[in-house]
Hints:
Elements: E1 2-14, E2 19-21, E3 26-27, E4 31-48, E5 54-57, E6 60-61, H1 67-83, E7 88-95, H2 106-122, H3 127-132, H4 137-147, E8 159-163, E9 172-177, E10 185-190, H5 200-204, H6 213-233, H7 236-255, H8 266-280, E11 286-289, E12 296-300, H9 305-316, E13 322-327, E14 333-337
Parallel strand pairs: 5-7
Antiparallel strand pairs: 1-4, 1-14, 2-3, 4-7, 4-8, 5-6, 8-9, 10-12, 10-13, 11-12
Helix pairs in contact: 1-2, 2-4, 6-7
Amino acid sequence: MSVVAVAPSNIALVKYWGKRDAARQWPANDSLSMTLTAARTETRAMIVDSGHDEFVFGGQRLAREAKEAARVMRHLDLLRRETGASAHLRIETQNTFPSAAGIASSASGFAALTLAGTAALLGAPDMAQLEGRGFTRARLASIARLGSGSACRSLFGGYVLWEAGPAPERQDVRPILAPEAFPLADLIVVLQAEAKRVSSSEAHRHAWTSPLFGPRLAGLPERLKRIETALAAGDFERLGIEIEHEALEMHAVIMTAEPPVRYLETATVELCAWLREERARGSFEAYFTIDAGPNVHVLCRPEDAATVTAKIQARFGAAVRSILQDQIGEGVSLASHPLEDLPS
Ligand code: DP6
């Protein structure tokens, strides 16, 4: 049997930045994200009898020593420990978004890997059977988190809260609002496609050295409450202003850490400033957020997505590599196929 898991990426509205305990992936703060639809990872897992794991990414078989493969192999060891199974797996994975788009794929990647790998090792081909074997979405989320923190939020759809909790083993991830309750589009404006010089895992470690990090942590519970209130009330303006402050605050921490890192490019800052000006002029209602990279996520109502996309293209033309039109959606899904159905 081969199983195929599909996991969407997610965009954080309240960012996970800084860890209290890196080994146990215990974050410094609660975070809140919106699960996406179009940007996703599809991962096929099947048991092999070659005696070792195999990893194929985007049609290319990766050497076990390759950096990306090593992280995947470690996660497969973890899945074997969690399931008590000893088999080896062939993992074939691909992203629906161009891998050169500079969009983090670790969230969707580790969510899909956890789901497909666990299902294959247990021979449990759907969510109900996985749950019957004790692997609820919450448990799968906590395993995915050990691969990459933000992956735990991709197990669920809509708006998802990851609570740090009072101890590493008491973290909680759960959906707080369904996609249809507050539908939003995410226009991912790709300004730079090259891999970043400093990975987010690396930069996370230095968060505590920024003089702004303590004040940030002190203010975050209130911000999270304001964002949850705005979501519940359907108040896009309140939500949007909060998420812009949040993204800029995370980047202020990153830029004032030791060593300082700057992910924001000139075009990033220009796009954000222009968006605010256009909004003030009443051209459209859209707000930005930015992850640990130079690309800008522009959030707007789905019915405004085409207009906002066209205006960004018209104003920034050459500086924009591409705009991926995405929107809020459901979490992971799982399907199984008999091996003979596999394309050769
Ligand atoms: C800026 O989840 O990539 O996207 O746990 O080290 O793999 P690791 O970090 P990662 O960090 C994501 C940081 C962020 C904000 C967020 O998604 O919450």
